[in-house]
Specification:
It is built from five helices and 44 strands. The strands form ten sheets. Strands 32, 33, 34, 37, 40, 41, 42, 43 and 44 form a nine-stranded mixed β-sheet that branches. Strands 6-5-4-3-38-39 form a six-stranded antiparallel β-sheet, with no helix packed on it. Strands 1-2-31-30-29 form a five-stranded antiparallel β-sheet, with no helix packed on it. It is mainly β and about 625 residues long.
Length: about 625
């Protein structure tokens, strides 16, 4: 491939731009040169019956495999930077990507076309990116949200070029509006972490405070006593921060990016190496040690993934955690581990239930979908996490269904292998759910020398995965609105999104959001959602949509209203990701052909649903509407 591309250092940028201008003919906005297309790869496991995935020309822009019920892939744009870290910008249809400060980016600052940008705002609707300014190196950082929607990026790495070190940095990004038009990263020297952190974890607490723990004082293949940061702190900070956390001494060396999930009782589930604990957020101490998870350690560099399974009102919001995959050992001989463990951490006799995955996978991105299922994307089946240490990409996503059904009973498995991508996504890849029900997949930067066009070069292409629920014969529900927030709902017809309540929001941090009109849901308070449920048939030949309220006995069945936070995503860690089902307390059909009304009770408190912005969807019989942004407070 190197001979094909002819990439001398002094003309590489131009060569890449020329090649990709011809490849990406769908009109992505040009804000810099884009990366080359890597070789096509056969999907790793269970591919023998799929003849479509090796036809690169056919697959270039849309590729759906043998059945769209198993998902469809669309190539939609380029990221501009290597998407090592990613999160949705609340109340918009945009994503922010962050990467390491290195000669790797293909985004350049507007005021200086020779100066690289290391973060961009990616517009999902337009498939374009806008370069952002960073003052400190955010490589291997963590992140979360403040209740007002301000994104907070914490920690980072060493100084590079004219970007200063970011070990103890706090960076803030607020969305654009009429008052705040700059909407760029804000790094203040007077607001910093109390300890420098590389590979830390952030989790939002019940009051919106960010819990920050762990990491190392410098980059390394594995953590140890010399460089480890065995402490936690809060933002906004307590006077006594940081506080020593012996658990992180005891779980060395496999405890970088420790796993953390806020439980509905307000305490934290924390996992590192093979150990899980419950950590009190009132006494700030361990109140329960859980049994060890069978199998190898699951944290970096072996790198499994974890998710707090959907919190459902019909189950009294009992929490359950799922941890999957990882590498079997820290060596080039390592294989992708093929087991998941589930645990109800608050039960008195809590223990792990193990399940076999269809294939081994290290570095999985475990993404919650609005229907309550979990999708596993990206990763490898050989080596470990880290630069130059992973091969054998796993190209097929896997859907995990947490609940029992006739289908799971018949298959004797909760897993369903989906249609493959043809783009390898190895170390430094991301996946996250977006408002319309698809999943954005981006990134892959497995090489220390990022300018080298190796077997798995730095990846800039952005894909969208459309789950099977987008291709059923039953039309999706449609949330009605009176003023558009963030975006227009465009399926199956254009309607705006209902304002539940108007409020003037004072920004807590960042450049400032100013006074805004928002969709606000109050804790433990009933509100109404206007929604159209459809009967009829959707096929490739015709789309016949009949509102159910017009039909005699057309009442919808198995309806849910869900709140989803896709979290801050990096290194297979989805920080603060959660899905909360809300209690439906009333249903008022409109027999005159208008809209149905669901009476829904807001989350009971911040322990269940930390204050902030969520994607709200209405689900009928497992088929979700498109989402709309709402703010919970």
């Amino acid at each position: 491939m190197e001979e094909e591309m002819g990439h001398e250092d002094d003309n590489q940028k131009g060569a890449l731009a020329s090649i990709l201008d011809s490849i990406y003919s769908f009109g992505a906005k040009k804000t810099g040169a884009k990366a080359p297309q890597p070789k096509a790869h056969k999907a790793n496991n269970n591919d023998d019956d799929d003849d479509d995935d090796d036809d690169e020309q056919h697959l270039r822009f849309q590729y759906q495999g043998t059945s769209r019920n198993l998902g469809q892939w669309d190539l939609v744009g380029v990221s501009g930077v290597s998407a090592m870290h990613a999160t949705l910008i609340p109340n918009t249809n945009k994503v922010v990507f962050l990467e390491k400060v290195e000669k790797n980016t293909h985004a350049f600052l507007a005021e200086n076309a020779q100066k690289m940008a290391f973060s961009v705002e990616y517009d999902i609707d337009e498939s374009t990116f806008r370069p952002l300014h960073t003052q400190t190196n955010q490589f291997c950082s963590a992140g979360g949200y403040r209740p007002d929607g301000t994104i907070v990026s914490v920690g980072g790495a060493e100084a590079q070029a004219d970007v200063v070190e970011g070990w103890n940095s706090l960076r803030f990004l607020s969305s654009c509006n009429a008052i705040n038009s700059r909407c760029d990263w804000d790094t203040r020297n007077d607001i910093t972490l109390k300890a420098g952190r590389w590979y830390p974890t952030v989790e939002a607490l019940a009051d919106g405070t960010l819990f920050i723990m762990g990491g190392a004082t410098r980059g390394a293949s594995m953590n140890d006593k010399e460089i480890g940061v065995p402490s936690w702190e809060l933002y906004p900070p307590l006077p006594s921060n940081p506080t020593h956390f012996a658990f992180l001494d005891e779980t060395l060396p496999y405890n970088l990016y420790p796993m953390a999930h806020l439980l509905p009782d307000g305490n934290l589930f924390i996992f590192a190496n093979t150990r899980g604990i419950i950590f009190s957020t009132t006494t700030w101490s361990i109140i329960k040690n859980l049994p060890d998870l069978p199998g190898p350690p699951r944290n970096y560099p072996l790198s499994g993934g974890s998710v707090l399974l959907p919190l459902r009102p019909e189950h009294n919001y009992e929490p359950e955690v799922l941890i999957c995959g990882g590498a079997t050992e820290f060596s080039s001989r390592g294989k992708g581990h093929d087991e998941c463990g589930r645990i109800f951490p608050l039960r008195k006799d809590a223990d792990w239930t193990m399940e076999k995955m269809p294939m081994g996978r290290m570095m999985p991105d475990m993404t919650l979908l609005p229907d309550g299922s979990v999708m596993m994307f990206n990763g490898a089946n050989r080596g470990t996490a880290g630069y130059g240490r992973n091969k054998d990409p796993v190209l097929r996503p896997v859907r995990y269904q947490p609940w029992d059904s006739p289908e799971t009973a018949q298959a004797n498995s909760r897993f369903t292998v989906q249609n493959p991508s043809y783009i390898p996504r190895l170390y430094h890849s991301v996946a996250m759910p977006i408002l319309d029900g698809r999943v954005m997949v981006a990134g892959s930067n497995p090489n220390a020398n990022t300018m080298e066009l190796s077997e798995f070069p730095v990846e800039y292409r952005v894909e969208m995965f459309s789950p099977g629920y987008m291709f059923t014969e039953t039309p999706r529900p449609l949330i009605k609105a009176e003023s558009t927030i963030g975006r227009s709902i465009n399926r199956p017809e254009a309607l705006p999104v209902k304002v539940l309540k108007e409020t003037n929001a004072n920004p807590e941090r960042g450049q400032g959001d100013g006074d805004t009109t928002e969709n606000v849901i109050m804790f433990d308070t009933v509100f109404e959602v206007e929604v159209q449920f459809y009967s009829g048939l959707v096929t490739s030949e015709a789309q016949v949509l009949t509102p159910k309220a017009k039909d005699a006995g057309g009442k919808p069945s198995r309806v849910q209203v869900n709140l989803l936070n896709g979290g801050f995503v990096t290194h297979s860690t989805h920080m603060s990701q959660r899905l909360v089902g809300l209690e439906i307390v009333g249903y008022v059909p409109n027999r005159e052909g208008g809209l149905d009304r669901l009476k829904v009770k807001g989350p009971r408190d911040g322990k269940l649903t930390p204050p902030g912005w969520y994607q709200m969807t209405v689900v009928e019989n497992g088929i979700p509407s498109e989402g709309t942004w709402v703010r919970v407070q």
